[in-house]
């Protein structure tokens, strides 16, 4: 919102209502909030519809109202609807990602952590290389000549950033938990990778590229990944500790909820202050808060946080799509790009084709390699699933737009080809969100849900986990027959490393973490809470 | 927050972190959010303390950290901490007032509506006249000569604006419901009156004052009051109707909560757009939403809205006090006022004395007049209660500061005496909030709560309401003995007009409003909700 005001504050001071603030700001806020209400109502009415969702509704409503504003003001109002990177990165993105971490199915996420890291890190690098190379090879032929090598690399980084927000809306965590955790988890890690790549491209010295540069990049990425994660975990644990220690026995819902909100946001800001990936930080702080802090607060605080975070995230998402839709019709950019419709379409379709190819180039190979290592048939990723992973990650969103602005609009000498890059980015984002976003739901239904054979899912390997836990407990109780049992559990540990890591973590958690930071079963009162019980019963089934 | 950014955006573009936004913004946000967390924790630790509360903690923490920032930056950083009227009026105030309307005890509020209106309208006008006159008479003698007649009148309007935010914190709705409803209700109505007065002073033609001017002002006030209220009621009813009609049977907590939030905020913005009192609008939209909309949503939505609105309001309040505290040490203002400590103290104490006198001049007379009309001993306002009403409304807050900035800082030629007025306003606000705020709680304890005799309260006249309702119901059932009953109920209506109005409203509500807009008992599922049940039992007792 401050974007609107910053722009508006440059208007003459005479345009003032009697109520101490700018009339234009108030009008813009009114329009935005009325449109948000309309999005929610229309989105609800379209609930049964397979093709539409809130993102697409918001995008189209934004486009429509942008057009109306343009008509009413006769092409003058584009300044009012400037896309602001600050607004996006400071206020809209953090609640979305925090909520995603807060509501994510932790077990599913950590079970697939190796796949998520492979997709998120190596996949993004592969995609970056292919897009950069493709742009370098194709753009000269279709008449875009003014870009430097640095710009080509930046385009690669910009279009490697997937849109985790839209993924959240088209994939359903309950219906397709495996795909959701893979695609969404990849999106979060992908963010860190994209930022590292983008910053690296900005600072890289193109004249002195050697093997050392790649090593340096890897080092930077590892530093970024681990410190960001650690900061998020520390923030989450701190909030759990404070609430457990201070509020013990005399809870106040408002203070608890406020403290959780503020500490999550503070962790994001601190990460940005330290040039880390705030998104990773706030994601992990959300995970830790839902694991510890959430169990230390009162029943009403639990319900409130669960729904309030989801609501704020929902409003932010809708706001972003509305914003992108309205911004797309910014007439100045289209004018200053000065490109013919042909060139625009050529550039946009080249970029989109490269996005498709770049994503295919890592989803299918990495999945196949993983399948080679899995013996059991049920744990393999089928081709249909690979196809959906590829498809659902093609959407580009606000991150891409924000990065594109940062690269092509912030420089003082914005050339016509820079504007062309921005308008092409907008076309790619709109096309991928509207077309791919609306087809994804029916596609998943057609490919997966109507299919009767059980897929790779959490149901297939839970029994062995239960088996394992049973063994370990037995082991502790009756030590006389322990040696054969220990052998068996050791064998299980060798064959199912992921599951045993999870088991060991549970043991560590129960013995050391929960007594200090609280968590399920470690606070005096444990009235049944909707999600807690559901998760519990799921884990014990 | 956009205030920080607007200021920061004027800094050279080189000061940029790698993460696409200004380092200074991020630092400011970090400091603010860390301080907010500290306020909540310290406020909780001081919970048992009678003298301190969150407002005072925040104010002192803000002062302290403002001092630290000033020391660290060697007196350079004052620009970072500019008080922004936009931030205050657009983002911080609406949630506070909306929440107050949402959580207010409606019965208590409407029972005392005549007193609230008397205090809020006539009281504010009396206070405005006394302060303007006093300033006019005293200021010339203590060396402040450059103010115009318009400025004197503006000062009267500025210092007649009480601080409803601080009142919410020092008075307890459960312990002293009568006082709370009077003082807080007055604060809300007072806001509308102050804005009318302030705007009238801005636009008044001092050369042509006649009896017509006063009449015009009255007309403006009545228009403002009724249209603002109507807009709030319409917004509330609309939200109730939409949720009842659209979401019937298939509720979604996130969408319901989002819709309530957005529609409340939209009503505030629309009121500001139409130059009405947004505060009155959002207050009444809160009342209507808690009466209708709140009963149409799911149980989780009820808990979520109740606590989420309270939390957001709590964060905003703390933020305001922190902000005022930090802003108080803005070194530029103190320098440019150029006044000696003596003049500063003289101006501030004159203003504060006038505030005290101006408030006394209407609280005691109006209360006495009201007492003359009340026959029964239990319904009279005792002197001790009058004293607390006077005392609790003396605090001036962020509204006063915002109006003072608007009057004395926005003009292009800020003279040293304009700066003096601003610094004096800050002194008055700090002094009244810290000293009066901290003494109020112990004072109420000493004067009222330890006293055993029952005071004027809702308990004293509820039996007669119950009696009346019983009569009306009897009346409807058995029409043969109706005439004598009707006479008796008519007599009751004459002696207790307030109660019968409430009864008639209940009847109208049950027959016409609730079937359309929902509400308690008019939605298919009515699981017990904490406040709803408490209110119900209270009303039937």
TrEMBL record, chains A, B:
It is a multi-pass membrane protein. Belongs to the monovalent cation:proton antiporter 1 (CPA1) transporter (TC 2.A.36) family. Keywords: Antiport, Ion transport, Membrane, Potassium, Potassium transport, Sodium, Sodium transport, Transmembrane, Transmembrane helix, Transport. It catalyses: Na(+)(in) + H(+)(out) = Na(+)(out) + H(+)(in); K(+)(in) + H(+)(out) = K(+)(out) + H(+)(in). It is found in: Membrane. It comes from Eucalyptus globulus (Tasmanian blue gum). Its main location: membrane. PANTHER family: SODIUM/HYDROGEN EXCHANGER, SODIUM_HYDROGEN EXCHANGER. One of its GO terms (cellular component) is membrane. Residues 50-445 form the Cation/H+ exchanger transmembrane domain. Gene3D superfamilies: 6.10.140.1330. This is Sodium/hydrogen exchanger. GO terms for biological process: potassium ion transport; sodium ion transport. InterPro entries: Cation/H_exchanger_CPA1 (IPR018422), Cation/H_exchanger_TM (IPR006153), NaH_exchanger (IPR004709). The chain crosses the membrane at residues 20-46, 58-75, 87-104, 116-140, 178-201, 221-243, 307-325, 345-366, 387-408, 420-444. GO terms for molecular function: antiporter activity.
């Amino acid at each position: 919102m401050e974007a609107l005001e910053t722009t508006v504050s440059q208007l003459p001071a005479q345009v003032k209502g009697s109520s101490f603030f700018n009339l234009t700001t108030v009008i813009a806020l009114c329009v935005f909030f009325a449109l948000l209400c309309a999005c929610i109502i229309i989105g609800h009415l379209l609930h049964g519809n397979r093709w539409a969702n809130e993102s697409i509704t918001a995008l189209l409503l934004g486009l429509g109202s942008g057009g109306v504003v343009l008509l009413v003001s006769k092409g003058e109002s584009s300044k009012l609807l400037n896309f602001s990177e600050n607004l996006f990165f400071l206020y809209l993105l953090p609640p979305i990602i925090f909520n995603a971490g807060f509501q994510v199915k932790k077990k599913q996420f950590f079970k697939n952590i190796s796949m998520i890291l492979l997709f998120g890190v190596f996949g993004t690098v592969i995609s970056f290389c292919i897009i950069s190379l493709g742009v370098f090879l194709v753009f000269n032929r279709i008449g875009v000549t003014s870009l430097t090598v640095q710009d080509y690399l930046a385009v690669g980084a910009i279009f490697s950033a997937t849109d985790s927000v839209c993924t959240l809306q088209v994939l359903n965590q309950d219906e397709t938990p495996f795909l959701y955790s893979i695609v969404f988890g990849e999106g979060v890690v992908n963010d860190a990778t994209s930022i590292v790549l983008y910053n690296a491209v900005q600072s890289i010295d193109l004249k002195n590229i050697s093997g050392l540069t790649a090593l340096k990049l890897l080092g930077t990425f590892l530093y970024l990944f681990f410190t960001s994660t650690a900061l998020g975990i520390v923030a989450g644990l701190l909030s759990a500790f404070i609430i457990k220690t201070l509020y013990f026995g005399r809870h106040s819902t408002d203070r608890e909820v406020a403290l959780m909100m503020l500490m999550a946001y503070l962790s994001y800001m601190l990460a940005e202050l330290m040039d880390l990936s705030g998104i990773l930080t706030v994601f992990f702080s959300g995970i830790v808060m839902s694991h510890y802090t959430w169990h230390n607060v009162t029943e009403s605080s639990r319900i409130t946080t669960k729904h309030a975070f989801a609501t704020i995230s929902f409003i932010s998402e809708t706001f972003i799509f509305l914003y992108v839709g309205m911004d797309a019709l910014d007439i100045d950019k289209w004018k200053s790009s000065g490109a013919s419709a042909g060139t625009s379409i050529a550039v946009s379709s080249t970029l989109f084709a490269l996005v498709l190819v770049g994503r295919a180039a890592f989803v299918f190979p990495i999945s196949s390699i993983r399948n080679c290592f899995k013996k059991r048939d049920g744990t393999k990723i089928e081709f249909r699933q690979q196809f959906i992973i590829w498809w659902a990650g093609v959407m580009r969103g606000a991150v891409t737009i924000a990065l594109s602005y940062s690269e092509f609009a912030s420089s003082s000498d914005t050339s016509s080809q820079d504007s062309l890059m921005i308008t092409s980015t907008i076309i790619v984002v709109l096309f991928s969100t509207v077309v791919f976003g609306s087809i994804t739901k029916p596609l998943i239904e057609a490919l997966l849900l109507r299919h009767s054979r059980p897929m790779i899912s959490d149901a297939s390997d839970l029994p062995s986990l239960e088996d394992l836990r049973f063994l370990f407990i037995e082991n502790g109780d009756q030590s006389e027959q322990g040696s054969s049992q220990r052998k068996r559990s050791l064998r299980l540990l060798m064959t199912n490393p992921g599951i045993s890591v999870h088991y060991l973590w549970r043991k560590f958690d129960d013995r050391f973490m929960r007594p200090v930071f609280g968590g399920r079963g470690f606070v005096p009162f444990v009235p049944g809470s909707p999600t807690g019980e559901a998760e519990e019963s799921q884990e014990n089934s």
